[in-house]
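Re: that chain you flagged

S.,

Sorry for the slow reply, it's been a week of failed gels. I finally had a moment to sit down with the sequence you sent. For the record, here it is as I used it:
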Amino acid sequence: MTTVAAIGSKGLFQALGAFSNDLKPGVQYTCVQVSTLAGMLALGDDPWDEVYKNKGISRTEYDTHLWQGESIIALQAADGALVKIPMPYIAGTPDAAGVTYRHIHMVLDLGVLPATMSLAALKETIVDVTLSMTGLKSVAALVNVGPEYMVTAEKSAVIEALRAQDIQDGNALSTRLAAAHNVIDAQSQAIAELEQHIIESDGG
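Prediction finished late last night. Pasting the structure tokens below so you have them in one place:
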């Protein structure tokens, strides 16, 4: 009897032979069920017809698996896709030490802005910041959401004055934060130098 996975085990499984294309490469699967062939037959299921026959596996091999007490393992992907594979066609224990990667889109809602406002500098800044923090060259795209509408010149002047004040306040906050980080860095350096001086003094 082959035993390579238990219910709840999760990772990158590898299928062999006739089932080698049933699992998607790089996709993590979770073992949600392990059923012996004899147990499935007792419940009225037909593992030969359901799992073996359509894969071109001989009846003799199926009968051998049945006699040896082999099981069918049910593997489920994150999208709910379920795959059933005989245990002997699973290559060892899953690789649970792998690192999961995702394709991520970051959405930034800018709200309502004047149609004539240029956002080229903002797009460039977002791309630069993303590159500096993730090492990835991203693409910043602008998408208009909903219909355009017009406001009076007087109302627009009020909106833009408030926006300008918010920008000024934001820049002032950024400046203060940067100054605070500089102070922290300087203090950390001074503490490190003091600790090193104490160690050298004790050693002397």
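What I noticed first: The chain has a mean pLDDT of 83.

Talk soon,
D.
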